[in-house]
Structure prediction request, 163 residues.
Amino acid sequence: MITSPQVEMRPATPEDDEFLYTVYASTREQELLAAPWDNEQKASFLRMQFQAQHTYYHAQFPDARYDVLIRDGEAIGRLYTDRRKDELKILDIALLPQHCGKGVGTQLIRMFMDEATALGLPVRLHVETFNRAQRLYARLGFTQVQNDGIYILMEWNPTNGHQ
Prediction:
C-alpha cells in the first residue's frame, strides 16, 4: 500500500467494483442532466459505459495499476496509472464530488510527478475538452500536446522543472 500524508492507495479488487462504478457515475452526473432519460435509463447507460471503460482499460493497459484512494479510512476515489519504459501515464483520476477541491488530486499528481522526475520520464494524460481538471494540470506545468476535439493530450516533462 502506498501512503502519502493524506491519501492511501491500494489495488482495486473485484469487491471494489460497485464503489468504482459509483465514482465513475459521479463523474458523468453533470453530463447526463440534459439527457431525456429517466433515472433507470441513466443508470443502465452508466453501467454499460462503466463496463466498456473497465474492459478497454484492462485490455489496452494490462500492466497498469488500478488503485482505490482511501482518506481517513474512507474510499474517496480511484487512480489508474500505467508505467512504461518511455512514459508514466495517468489513465484516470476521479474523486467522489465531496472530496474534490481539497487538494487530493494535486497531491496525487505531484507524487506521480516526483516518481517521473526520479526516472527521468514524462507524465502524460488525456483529458476531455470540457473537463475543469485542465486548469489543475496546466497549473502543475502540463502542456497541451494534441487536441482531437474530444480529448486533449497533455504532458509534463521533468526537464522543464515546473512543478
About this structure: Strands lie at 2-3, 8-11, 65-71, 74-83, 88-95, 123-128, 143-147, 151-156. Residues 89 and 124 are 5 Å apart (CA to CA).
